UniProtKB/TrEMBL annotation:
SUPFAM superfamilies membership: GroES-like, NAD(P)-binding Rossmann-fold domains
Keywords, alphabetical: Oxidoreductase
Source lineage: Bacteria, Pseudomonadati, Pseudomonadota, Gammaproteobacteria, Cellvibrionales
Name of the protein in question: NADP-dependent oxidoreductase
Annotated Pfam families: ADH_N_2 (PF16884), ADH_zinc_N (PF00107)
Gene3D superfamilies: Medium-chain alcohol dehydrogenases, catalytic domain, NAD(P)-binding Rossmann-like Domain
KW Oxidoreductase (keyword) present: yes
Residue stretches making up the Enoyl reductase (ER) domain: 19-330
UniProt xrefs under InterPro entries: ADH-like_C, ADH_N_2, ER, GroES-like_sf, MDR_fam, NAD(P)-bd_dom_sf
Length: 332
């Protein structure tokens, strides 16, 4: 029986915030695999911030071609194989795209053992764009240590949630910045000693109140005015970690940089950006640490799972609106 693929493609380049009209839902027969290829039935897709940077901008993560499935990482089960190293029923992680089936080569696929952890864990706490990103940024770039005062923006998102908990593992005092009372309550439940509701309070004044001696580490997922507020409240020799800038992704051609960057010089501090793929040699240790802390209950990541491929554009919009807590996933 011929399999039918459903996919969400990029119909046009967004002008600012993506809208439903920028996407198109397409059905077509699944192509026959060529020698060396496999057919994967997609199980879960990660709705990650990097996706937004590919829609109208040719940057670090590439540019999504028009009429092609939206770039997305995912997990899935192989249902047909013309590759001797991958068998039917193997579970894999890799670039799946916003579609029900993916016909691809295996160079960028990773086999998963579903007996060790649910496959979707590799999109979440063990995921490259989530747990590993938080680990690289907080522990390797930010060099957080016991006694540090740390603030994390978009702290109730997937990366932010793990980053807050990793700082706690290292013995830091953590301030989480998120939007709304419910998210602040969640941050308190994972060990944040202070929270800031950026929708209903002044971030700059709250940072001064909660961190009167300044921030030793600021882990930024947002950019814009929140980054400036943190720069204005740095301790001496602080580390600012640039993980993302969700406030800027709707206008990548005119990104607004920080106006208070001279605070770095005044306070003998540093600001360093990173992407997790620069730390691949350390992935085995990072995964082992995260798995251990997860088993001990020190790192927990709630999931928000949207159902149905047609929900992909709406799920992507949640990244901008903050309409989720923890890891945002989609099950086609």
């Amino acid at each position: 029986m011929q399999l039918v693929n459903q996919k969400v493609v990029l119909a046009r380049r967004p002008q600012g915030m993506p809208t439903a009209e920028d996407f198109e839902f397409v059905e077509e027969p699944v192509a026959e695999p060529e020698p060396g290829q496999v057919v994967i039935e997609v199980d879960h897709l990660g709705i990650d911030a990097f996706i937004a940077t590919t829609l109208d901008h040719d940057g670090h993560h590439g540019q999504n071609a028009l009429q092609s499935a939206i770039i997305a990482l995912g997990t899935g089960r192989i249902v047909a194989s013309l590759n001797d190293d991958f068998a039917v029923d193997d579970w894999v992680f890799g670039g799946m795209g916003a579609q029900r089936y993916n016909v691809c080569g295996t160079e960028m696929l990773r086999k998963l053992d579903p007996n060790l952890a649910p496959p979707r864990s590799y999109l979440g706490v063990l995921g490259m764009t989530t747990g590993l990103t938080a680990y690289a940024g907080m522990l390797l770039v930010g060099q957080v240590k016991e006694g540090d005062t740390v603030a994390v923006s978009a702290a109730a998102g997937a990366v932010g949630t793990v980053a807050c908990q990793l700082a706690k593992v290292r013995g830091a005092n953590v301030i989480g910045i998120a939007g709304g009372p419910q998210k602040c309550e969640f941050l308190e439940s994972i060990g944040c000693s202070g929270t800031i509701d950026y929708k209903n309070s002044d971030v700059a004044s709250e940072l001064k109140r909660l961190a009167p001696d300044g921030l030793n580490v600021f882990f930024d997922n947002v950019g814009g005015s929140i980054l400036d507020a943190a720069l204005d409240n740095l301790a001496m020799e602080a580390r600012v970690v640039i993980c993302g800038a969700i406030s800027q992704y709707a206008h990548m051609a005119a990104v607004e940089g920080p106006s208070l960057y001279l605070r770095l010089a005044e306070r003998n501090s540093s600001m360093r950006g990173f992407t997790v793929d620069h730390f691949t040699s350390q992935f085995p240790k990072m995964e082992a640490d995260l798995a251990g802390w997860s088993a001990e209950g020190k790192v927990n990541l709630p999931e928000h799972i949207e159902q149905g491929l047609e929900r992909f554009p709406d799920a992507l919009g949640m990244l901008y609106s903050g309409g989720h807590t923890g890891k945002l996933l989609l099950k086609p």
